[in-house]
Design a protein that fits this description.
- With 93 residues, the chain is an alpha+beta fold.
- The protein is built from three helices and three strands; from the N terminus they run αβαβαβ.
- A three-stranded antiparallel sheet has the order 1-3-2.
- It binds coenzyme A (COA).
- Residues 1, 6-12, 34, 38, 40-41, 43-44, 47 line the site of coenzyme A.
- Residues 1, 6-12, 34, 38, 40-41, 43-44, 47 line the site of coenzyme A (COA).
Length: 93
């Protein structure tokens, strides 16, 4: 969500639209990755029913080979190194 438009409900609506679309297509699991520094996003996803499914320690080094623009330092001045995988099991919805 563009920085000027955060906190207005757009992210919640996008997540709900993705959930509904995946469910309608017969998907069993909605999943995503965020980075170890991003507590605001982790809170956002958990308050909307998603749960941590895995921690991929050091995975950002591999992701940077595909996306070199990934910053070295993130929220709170912490190094960005690990990926946190969140999931929502759609049969529970
Ligand atoms: C996380 C994000 C997608 C949420 O979208 P949004 O449109 O701001 O979210 P909504 O308005 O629907 O809901 C607000 C919620 O987002 C949280 N939030 C996370 N980052 C925020 C930000 N920079 N500004 C405002 N709210 C933010 C709020 O704390 C609030 O959570 P709560 O309801 O649990 O209190 C969006 O803030 C964003 O793009 N953040 C920066 C990039 C990012 O971290 N993307 C996710 C990478 S995995």
């Amino acid at each position: 969500v563009h920085a000027a438009s955060r906190g207005l409900g757009l992210g919640s609506r996008l997540l709900e639209a993705a959930r509904k679309r995946a469910y309608d297509l017969g998907c069993r699991r909605l999943w995503l990755i965020t980075t170890n520094d991003n507590e605001p996003a982790m809170r956002f996803y958990q308050r909307r029913g998603m749960r941590i499914a895995a921690i991929h320690r050091g995975a950002i080094a591999e992701s940077r080979k595909l996306k070199p623009e990934i910053a070295l330092v993130g929220v709170g001045g912490r190094p960005i190194e690990d990926e946190i995988e969140f999931e929502l099991l759609l049969m529970d919805c």
